[in-house]
Amino acid sequence: MNNVLEKLDSYSELPAYPVLLAKLDQMLRDPNSSIKMFADLLRTDAALVGRLLRIANSVWFSAGRSEVFSLNDAIGRLGIVQLRRVVYGSYLSSQFANNGVVNHTEFWRHSLSVAILAQRLALLRHDLKALNPDQVYIGGLFHDIGIIIFAIIELKKYRAIVGNAATQDLSLDELELKEFGVSHADIGAEFIMRHWGVNSDIGMAVKYHHNPFEAPIESRPIAIAIHLSNSFCNNEGISNGVSIPHSIFLEGAWEYLGLTLEDALVIYEDVKDSVAESELMIAN
Ligand SMILES: [Fe+2]
Ligand SMILES: [Fe+2]
After folding, report:
1. Within 10 Å of residue 150's Cβ, how many Cβ atoms?
2. Residue 195 gets which letter from DSSP?
3. pTM surpassing 0.85?
C-alpha cells in the first residue's frame, strides 16, 4: 500500500467525525425530532449558534421578515431541510485547526463556496437522480479536504510543496503525485470514506473532482458538478489558498449534466451569493 495511505490509517491525530454532526444526522432521520430537540443539541456550541442566527437573518433566509433572536426561531426559519446544510457548513471548518500551511479562511471560503454553488447547480437539474443536491453539497464541502489531511500527516514536506507551488509549472496534483504517489483528491476521498463513513458516491466524486469523466458512473454527475463549481470559484479568485491561477471547464461537462448556456449564466450570477453566504458560515 502507498506510504501516505498507510500513514493515514495509523495517524492518531486526525479529527474524528464530530459527535455533534453524528447526533444531528440521527435526529434528522427521526421523524419525531422537534425544533426544541435540534435547538438543545446545537446550543452546546456558542459559535455555531451565532452563525445560525446570522444566517437565518441574512438576505437569503429573512426575505424582509423581522430579525430572529432565538435559536428555536432561527431553526424554524431555516427549516429542517436547510438545517443540515447550514450546520455542516458552519461547523466543519471549526473542527480543523488552522495548520499554518494553507490560509484557513481562504481554504474554507473556497470549500463552502464550491459546495453552495454546486448545490445550486444540482437544484437546476433536480430531475437527475444521480445529482442529489445534499450529496453534491457534502462532496463540494469535502472536495479539497485532502489538502488539510496532507498538512496534518506530512506537515514538513507539504509545507515545502505549498511554498513552492506558485513558482512551479506543475499543478498541485502533479506535485503531490510526484512527492507522495497520491494527490489531495485521493487522500481526501480515503479520509472521508474510511474515517468519517461518508458514502462512496460522494467519496468517488471527491477522488475524481479534477478528472470527473474518469469517475464511476454513479458518481460522475456529482464529480462534474463539483468540477464546474470549482472552476467558477477559482476563476473568480476564490481559490483554496494554495495556488490555482486559472481553471478551465472540461469539454462536455455542461452538456453531460444537460445544462445550457443560459443555466451557466444563472450559475455565474450565483457565485457572488455563494461566496457571501460562505463568509457568514465561517465568520466568528
Ligand atoms: Fe482540488
Ligand atoms: Fe477546489
Report:
1. 28
2. I
3. yes
Report the separation in Å between the CA atom of 113 and the middle of ligand 1, taken as the mean of its atom positions.
Answer: 13
Residue 52's pLDDT is 94
Ligand 2 centroid from CA 100, angstroms? 18
For residue 114, give the nearest of 138, 82, 147 by alpha carbon: 138
Nearest alpha carbon to residue 111 among 88, 130, 79:
88
Tell me the three cell numbers of residue 18: 464530530
CA–CA separation, 162 and 144 (whole Å): 14
Q: How many alpha carbons lie under 13 Å from residue 41 in its C-beta half-sphere?
A: 21
- Give pLDDT tens digits for 214-227: 999 999 999 999 99
What would the DSSP string read from start to end of 126-147?
Answer: TT-TT--HHHHHHHHHHTTHHH
Instruction: Band the pLDDT of 100: cuts 50, 70, 90.
Output: confident
- For residues 198 and 30, give the distance between their C-alpha atoms in angstroms, rounded to a whole number: 19
Phi-psi domain of 241 (left: phi exceeds 0; alpha: psi -120 through 50; beta: other):
left
**For position 64, what pLDDT does the model report?**
84
Tens-digit pLDDT profile for residues 228-280: 999 999 998 999 988 656 678 999 999 999 998 888 888 888 888 889 988 88
CATH of domain 3-281: 1.10.3210.10
Q: What residue spans define the domains of the chain?
A: 3-281
CA of 54 relative to ligand 2 center, distance in Å: 26
Mean pLDDT of 123-148: 92
The label of the residue with cell 490509517 reads 9
Smallest-distance ligand from the CA of 206: 1
Three cell numbers written together for 52 = 445560525
CB-based contacts of 162-166 (< 8 A; 24+ apart in sequence): 162/101, 162/102, 162/242, 162/243, 165/242, 165/243, 166/243
